[in-house]
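We modelled each protein-ligand pair independently. The example shown here corresponds to the pyridoxal-5'-phosphate entry; the chain sequence is given first, followed by the ligand as SMILES.
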Amino acid sequence: MGRPLRACISIPALRHNLRRVRELAPAARVWAVVKANAYGHGLSNAIEAFDDAHGLALLEFDAAQRLREAGWRRPILMLEGPFEPADVAQARQQGLTLALHRPEHLDWLAEHPARGDAQRLDVLLKFNSGMNRLGMRAPALRDAHAALAGGPLAAQVGSVGLMTHFANADVLGGIDEAWPAFVAACQGLSGPRSVSNSAAIIDHPATHGDWVRPGVMLYGATPFASRDAAGLGLRPAMRLESELIAIQTLSAGESVGYGSLFTAAAPMRAGVVACGYADGYPRHAPVGTPVVVAGRRAWLAGRVAMDMLMVDLSDVPDARVGSPVQLWGDQLPIDEVAQAAGTVGYELMCALAPRVPVIVER
Ligand SMILES: *Cc1c(COP(=O)(O)O)cnc(C)c1O
């Protein structure tokens, strides 16, 4: 059987979470965000689970090509737009929708012109609503819109829409300035609007517009610091599972793992789990991070190693070699592990390493 570590991806859970998006934003079309290998869940699983979505969104051009080769015929939005002029040519060939976030991108459209109507690109002009990462401010946005919608570049494009991405949709009052700024910048401009990430889909229905862009919620994790995924009606789509491959019996004063970071206060058993940071488990997870062994809560004891981690089995007296371990999943929310490790569920799911075998549940 080999090493017992595996990631189980649940297609029904992914489907459920997409249905949850549709419940929350019934009037909007959905760009299911599948960047970073579908947040670690696999592009082919995403295609299968999100066949109800109106489009897929990502930023990697090689992955967009794979989506087309895998038979995805509906829209694909490139969230970071073209990185170089040649990307425009690929977008035309493969029918990709481009976010345009710099005025130079309009020159690139002219550099790789449409050969026939079939090569007209759908585009979304990106407004900088205060994140100051990607996007144009209002004057440049309006100039770009004028050039594309009925202006000199009109023959290069099909639909011309407007988008923005919030810096703080997950905190109370976090869009109080950004949302009115977007509305004002787009005043009177034609075209579909796409604004809402997961947090805005859940908390800011006024922003839903024509297309929403859910990411993390599709995978069953929370976009918020202090509201859990289950309470939002989401189901975890990834379980990271392994087994105990050894058990050490420690006397008081004996230590576990590199750096002897954990020392037994009393006689105890330490379980050794086949999972380490080379699998994507966070090395910085501290002693005390929850781990589920044989269905019961146990705790990380000692420093996470490349291929193994150790757990305190004091609360799992019936644990033995071969007992099942869940690092995150339905018995242990990924967000809880992330919080213990000082990060977010997003990072943990994206970090799942290629060496971990994936099992797909249908
Ligand atoms: C990643 C991303 C999203 C999805 O964000 P979540 O918080 O995962 O829902 C939406 N829009 C853009 C532009 C993104 O980069």
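The chain has eleven helices and 18 strands.
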